[in-house]
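Query form — protein BioF2-like acetyltransferase domain-containing protein

QUESTION: What is the three-dimensional structure of this chain?
INPUT:
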Amino acid sequence: MPSEYELRSADPEREAWTAAVADHPEATPFHTREWCRAVDVGFDYDPAHRFVYETGSDALAAVVPGFSISGLGGRTVVNPFCEYGFPLLTPEADEVGVFRALAADVGPLGARVVKDARWRGARGYNPAGYGATETGAVIRIDADRDYDAVRETEFASSTRRCLRSAATAGLTLREGTVEEYYPIYLATMRRLGSPQFPRSFLTALETLFGDDCHVFLADDADGETVGGLLALDHDGTRMVWSNASYQRAWEARPNHFLYAAAIEDACAGDLDVFDCGRSRPGSTVHDFKAAFGGREFPLASFVTPAHRTGRASLEGYSRAGAITPYLGGVITNRAVGPRLKRFIHE
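ANSWER: The structure tokens for BioF2-like acetyltransferase domain-containing protein are given below.
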């Protein structure tokens, strides 16, 4: 039976892409041409972005970001290094039909991974034959209100105590640059034993997103920068993309200080949602984020064909986390880390 939809190669630089993303209420920073270009600059993956049209017409049904990445079992199309990679459908498009058209585009050994979240309410993956694997959760805080109200009604008492500790320690906030943030980020990745993003990727985010990329920095009482947070804004939502700090400064609570400052700045601006980014429920990072309040939404990767769902699983990385901190110096070597990151694409 012929499909009601057909796929065509897409270029995020085209006006059709930009307009579809700009007008879509569910668009995220990871659907924008700026994100797609930054990934291209940092990793040189093969672009696999798609327009979905009604068959035989110029009626656009969806835009779908993605890159084709080679692996041991074949190529996988995915929007890497982010929480969200779902198609942006027009109101008239049939969700199941679009997902089926995407499934027909993967090739004999290929797979497509579509990253989605429960806050969207999409229901078409199962009828379209996709498999699924849970990848964590996000916590989203309503930012369209006064910061004092958020702090008093959402923040846990432990978080407010940590913010008082940060004030007592004399932490101060400023907006800085990736050049200042990157050494702190690299030290954090080395401590965790996690491969780092190349500096070129973070610099590309800063350059391409411009005023929608924020690098918040925390300075201690002596003027040393001890922590940072990189966030991306798009269409009313602020997305925390990276956060790092020096372990020696933890008594001053720089991470609590930075999250609170980024939330306060979001409340003061023209933003509606503060998205804390992905974390694994039960982890210390997730508990840290949950203590700022908000609502938790599960994340999942939907995979076609379903028997290749393992390509989207993060369980292997979680198990490796027990030993990787002991290998931090090797894993984050300048010649090794970015290559590992390119292969892992998470």
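ADDITIONAL NOTE: The domain at 5-134+299-344 is CATH 3.40.630.30 (Aminopeptidase).
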